[in-house]
Amino acid sequence: MNCRTFCESIEAFLDGEADLVVRETMEPHAASCASCRKQLAAARKTRGLMEVYAAPQAPAGFAARAAQAAQGAEPISIGSAFRWRAAAAAVFLAVGGGLGIYFLMSAEGTKDPGGQAPVAQEPAIKQPPVSKEEVPVQRESLPVAESNSNSIEEQEIAENLEILENWELLNDPDVAIALALPDEDFEVLMSALEEGI
Amino acid sequence: MPPLDMNRHRPDPGAALMLRFQAGEAGAFEEMVRAYQDTVYAFLFRFRGREDGVEDLAQEVFLRVFRARERYRPDAKFSTWLYRIVCNLCINEKRDRKDARSLDADSAKGEAGLARMADEKAEQPSRSIEQREIAQAVRASLEKLPENQRAAVLLSQYHGMSYRDVGESLGVSEKAVKSMMARAREQLKEKLLPFLREEVRG
Questions:
Q1: Cα(first)–Cα(last) distance of chain A, in Å?
Q2: ipTM of this model?
Q3: Which of A27, A95, A151, B35 is the most interior residue, by most CB within 10 Å?
Q4: DSSP letter string over B120-139?
């Protein structure tokens, strides 16, 4: 081992992440090289100094407050938030992709082509009540359900989901991508789609 | 689909708690928060460099855990999944705060420095002056690091994560973590040089 390799390997070695060859040659090299020995000692000392920087513990009652805040900010029952997102994302993409034209044309009647594709007579999605942190832009564009009953919301979501499933929109790769996004990215996507509609 | 056997996940207590939470067990979420609140709080405190606002941020972390519960799969370590949320929040929050403060950053700098030293003394009055100075220097050194390097060092140094787990938490490769750690540690060593004894100075 040369000095350059030694210095490059110090941190991984001290973190236990160096490969076997490095691990076995570090100490022998340090024993024979004063400069490298000082580098290793400095790296070890630095880690020791960093341990002096202590952190406080979470304040008393934090867990109860956090649990209460989380449950208070989540009016939709477990499971329905995901279905709501699936329905909302699919509707936006459907409108953007031209399926909105079909809904508009179909809205004049209750045509049922052999039971294959049930048709909505009014806007497909009624937005369930959501917390402020969830996609706030959508509230301005979609009618808000007057009732806060979870059973009615879930029924509506289930109905909309059935429509979307029949149209195989849930298999749309764009929908899959949208559903897989982290919260903040999903909000950005929704805002962008909202502006585009 | 057969029900998940939660006993398989005993070695990962966080995963077991999440599964109980997903199954709808009352009190499981609060129990999970209690188990991880200190480690999350510590990370947020060191990442931000001060205690102000940490509790709100920690609550936001667990709120996101609550909301993302259906996305958690027990094939992933709970801690890396949790810290993925923590790091995303920290980096985005830091970015937002930087934008908000950019207009009067210069005038606030001096006041912020004094406030931090006062915080440090108030938090740990029993510590020696030297220890407080070291803690202050470490805090200042960490703040100078780019956010991803800072997060990597915190996860490795204070939370005992392997490079692989750090990579999963930050969404980068293990090789990238190794590189980040080397650069970050070198910078920290240089900043803390005044505290290294003569015999270890290179």
A1: 63
A2: 0.80
A3: A95
A4: HHHH-TTS-HHHHHHHHHHH
